[in-house]
């Protein structure tokens, strides 16, 4: 294998199907979660399959944190079974005749002792499935099966984890149960993850980097925070467009069950969901939940008022509305307003405003 020095995932693939062409050239972070987002048929699964070597793409190139898995120009092509990766699908296909422990152990044999970075015990603990080990797959719920599938993918100590809509087959309640486990993986493991999702909520909670796909091409690739705030990308037109900011809990108001989250642009009060002081968390602020004023109001019910500057105004999919991109101390915010309000406030790039955000609207 040829070695490169960059700590990243480099993927270059061109593939032609009748009526569809994949044409990507990506340089992705070598750690953290990269979300692949795009309409159905935009090529997300095809890209994952090419990365896994399941789709043989002549002329392709793939290097994962310095290890070249495919470089056809040099005659390098690792078959799928030799690529140290984990692949999680919408539904975990477990062996029906093996109990959960045996399912998890299956596949471990091909991982040499010295390459085992994630122990089976650690994977079991991370996904909270210790109590299920002696059960048979048909005695598990869909959510439990999926947690086993994720643990199985982790247990082979992958250098890259591919997740293709791992929560898509689950109902909202089960999704809510599994997301915290995925957040733990994100926080505790150093494995780069490519995560296909249609859900802005999952992307907001898990991703660090965002790749937007359209018709087989990469429309944009960049950090999550910056990408979500771009008015030129279709994401901003979603009903639940908004930004994600990273903050730390710096105060607790036990009388009113509120926590104060400090971020680069100020402070926000959020509902106390059991987080502790100094805990880091992500807040999702939807554009429709942000209103603007020219002076800070103290006679309103809104607890959160942040000083910001208008960066740009952009079109919304509805002619009555406009999207305003703001900067709050280096943190981007989006506000969706009526054009009438924007006109009566006389908003223009550079104008100083106050962004009001209802506490109840903040998503943790
Ligand atoms: N083996 C194949 N032969 C021909 N066309 C294919 C093949 N595999 C995929 N395609 C086509 O490639 C396009 C991209 O499919 P792909 O499954 O990658 O999209 P996707 O973004 O993952 O979609 P979804 O979100 O619905 O899963 C589609 O038009 C699909 O029909």
TrEMBL record:
<dbReference type="InterPro" id="IPR004606">
    <property type="entry name" value="Mop_domain"/>
</dbReference>
<dbReference type="InterPro" id="IPR017871">
    <property type="entry name" value="ABC_transporter-like_CS"/>
</dbReference>
<dbReference type="InterPro" id="IPR027417">
    <property type="entry name" value="P-loop_NTPase"/>
</dbReference>
<keyword id="KW-1003">Cell membrane</keyword>
<keyword id="KW-0500">Molybdenum</keyword>
<keyword id="KW-1278">Translocase</keyword>
<dbReference type="Pfam" id="PF03459">
    <property type="entry name" value="TOBE"/>
</dbReference>
<dbReference type="InterPro" id="IPR003439">
    <property type="entry name" value="ABC_transporter-like_ATP-bd"/>
</dbReference>
<dbReference type="GO" id="GO:0016887">
    <property type="term" value="F:ATP hydrolysis activity"/>
</dbReference>
<protein>
    <submittedName>
        <fullName>Molybdenum import ATP-binding protein ModC</fullName>
    </submittedName>
</protein>
<dbReference type="GO" id="GO:0005524">
    <property type="term" value="F:ATP binding"/>
</dbReference>
<feature type="domain" description="Mop">
    <location>
        <begin position="299"/>
        <end position="364"/>
    </location>
</feature>
<dbReference type="InterPro" id="IPR008995">
    <property type="entry name" value="Mo/tungstate-bd_C_term_dom"/>
</dbReference>
<keyword id="KW-0067">ATP-binding</keyword>
<dbReference type="GO" id="GO:0015098">
    <property type="term" value="F:molybdate ion transmembrane transporter activity"/>
</dbReference>
<keyword id="KW-0997">Cell inner membrane</keyword>
<keyword id="KW-0813">Transport</keyword>
<dbReference type="Pfam" id="PF00005">
    <property type="entry name" value="ABC_tran"/>
</dbReference>
<keyword id="KW-0472">Membrane</keyword>
<keyword id="KW-0547">Nucleotide-binding</keyword>
<dbReference type="InterPro" id="IPR050334">
    <property type="entry name" value="Molybdenum_import_ModC"/>
</dbReference>
<dbReference type="InterPro" id="IPR003593">
    <property type="entry name" value="AAA+_ATPase"/>
</dbReference>
<dbReference type="InterPro" id="IPR011868">
    <property type="entry name" value="ModC_ABC_ATP-bd"/>
</dbReference>
<dbReference type="GO" id="GO:0016020">
    <property type="term" value="C:membrane"/>
</dbReference>
<dbReference type="InterPro" id="IPR005116">
    <property type="entry name" value="Transp-assoc_OB_typ1"/>
</dbReference>
<feature type="domain" description="ABC transporter">
    <location>
        <begin position="4"/>
        <end position="240"/>
    </location>
</feature>
<dbReference type="GO" id="GO:0140359">
    <property type="term" value="F:ABC-type transporter activity"/>
</dbReference>
């Amino acid at each position: 294998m040829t070695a490169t020095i960059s700590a990243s995932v480099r993927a270059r693939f061109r593939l032609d199907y009748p009526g569809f062409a994949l044409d990507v050239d990506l340089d992705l972070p070598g750690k953290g979660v990269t979300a692949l987002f795009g309409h159905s048929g935009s090529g997300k699964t095809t890209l994952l399959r090419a990365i896994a070597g399941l789709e043989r793409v002549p002329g392709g190139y793939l290097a994962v944190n310095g290890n070249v898995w495919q470089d056809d120009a040099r005659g390098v092509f690792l078959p799928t079974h030799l690529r140290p990766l984990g692949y999680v699908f919408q539904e975990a296909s477990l062996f029906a005749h093996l109990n959960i422990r045996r399912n998890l152990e299956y596949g471990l044999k091909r991982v040499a002792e010295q390459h085992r970075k994630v122990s089976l015990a650690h994977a079991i603990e991370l996904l909270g499935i210790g109590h299920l080990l002696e059960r048979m797959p048909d005695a598990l719920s869909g959510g439990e099966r999926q947690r086993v599938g994720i643990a199985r993918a982790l247990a082979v100590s992958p250098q890259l984890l591919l997740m293709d809509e791992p929560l898509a087959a689950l109902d909202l309640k089960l999704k809510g149960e599994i997301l915290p486990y995925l957040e733990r993986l994100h926080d505790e493991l150093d494995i780069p993850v490519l995560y296909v999702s249609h859900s802005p909520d999952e992307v907001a909670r898990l991703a660090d980097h965002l790749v937007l796909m359209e018709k087989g091409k990469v429309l944009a690739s960049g950090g999550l925070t910056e990408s979500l705030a771009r008015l030129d990308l279709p994401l901003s037109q979603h009903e639940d467009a908004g930004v994600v900011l990273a903050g730390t809990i710096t105060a607790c108001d036990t009388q009113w069950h509120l926590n104060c989250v400090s971020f680069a642009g100020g402070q926000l009060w959020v509902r106390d969901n059991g987080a502790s002081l100094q805990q880091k968390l992500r807040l999702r602020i939807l554009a429709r939940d942000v209103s603007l004023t020219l002076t800070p109001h103290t006679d309103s019910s809104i607890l959160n008022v942040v000083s910001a500057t208008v960066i740009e105004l952009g079109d919304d999919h509805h002619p009555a509305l406009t999207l305003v991109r703001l900067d709050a101390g280096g943190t981007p915010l989006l506000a969706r307003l009526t054009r009438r309000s924007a006109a009566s406030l006389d908003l223009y790039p550079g104008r100083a405003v106050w962004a009001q955000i209802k506490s109840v609207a903040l998503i943790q």
